[in-house]
Automatic annotation (TrEMBL):
Protein's name in the database: Ras association domain-containing protein 3
Domain spans labelled Ras-associating: 71-161
Gene Ontology terms: cellular component: cytoplasm; microtubule
Location(s), subcellular: Cytoplasm, Cytoskeleton
Organism of origin: Mesitornis unicolor
Top-rank taxon, per record: Eukaryota
Entry keyword annotation includes Lipid metabolism: no
CDD domains: RA_RASSF3 (cd17219)
Molecular functions (GO terms): zinc ion binding
Record keyword Electron transport present: no
Domain SARAH: 163-210
Length: 214
């Protein structure tokens, strides 16, 4: 299970330190996703973000996969587990901008305020996670940690239940969620009914054998 980790202080790098780190980073890259340093000191590169969403997302598209419910031109559906998206960003892009860019790539209509970006680190056989503030810069974190995702990876999640800004949801979104919940509830009820019916049949069969005359 992930362990929450305190946010680490930001260490500012000089232009020369940035240049050296980028050279070191690029020499270690194995997937060709290198960083590029521009003359103005801003650098660009790639980050991969794993989508770990428990609730359905609302997409402005008629084409979607999985369990869905429709309202107007929007579709609410569950994103497949383990979905990873690669973004090309710059060192000036903030966490909030990265979240917005991810939602645009998926054509997600949900309010970006519903989501949070986490960094996940592995240390001493333990997995640590830390929610990033909106003003942090993911590409800087990627540069400092190096290209190995086992050292640092990014995860997009919804805010915890107690943090959800329900006023940020639109009426169609809430209606879609209710339809999906109703569908799932009915599916679970059918599963439970079948399970207990099977138990009942076995019990009645056993009782019939016990009370059988002779």
């Amino acid at each position: 299970k992930d362990v929450q980790k305190e946010r680490e202080p930001h260490v500012y790098l000089s232009k020369e330190e940035v240049k050296e780190k980028i050279q070191s980073y690029n020499s270690s890259v194995t997937d060709k996703l290198k960083m590029t340093l521009n003359a103005n000191g801003i650098y660009t590169g790639f980050i991969k973000v794993q989508m770990e969403l428990c609730r359905p997302i609302t997409v402005q598209s008629s084409q979607s996969q999985g369990r869905s419910a429709h309202a107007n031109n929007e579709t609410a559906f569950y994103l497949p587990d383990g979905c990873v998206n690669t973004l090309h960003i710059s060192s000036t892009n903030t966490v909030r901008e990265v979240i917005e860019a991810l939602l645009r790539k998926f054509l997600v209509a949900d309010n970006p305020a519903k989501f949070a970006l986490y960094k996940r680190c592995h240390k001493e056989d333990q997995v640590y996670t830390c929610k990033l503030s909106d003003r942090e810069h993911p590409l800087y974190l990627r540069l400092v940690a190096g290209p190995r995702t086992e050292m640092l990876s990014f995860v997009l999640r919804e805010h915890e239940t107690g943090e959800v800004m329900w006023e940020a949801f639109t009426i169609p979104e809430l209606q879609n969620f209710l339809r999906i919940l109703d569908k799932e509830e009915n599916e679970q009820l059918q599963i439970l009914k079948k399970r207990y019916a099977a138990y009942r049949d076995k019990l009645e069969e056993a009782l019939g054998g016990v009370w059988k005359p002779g």
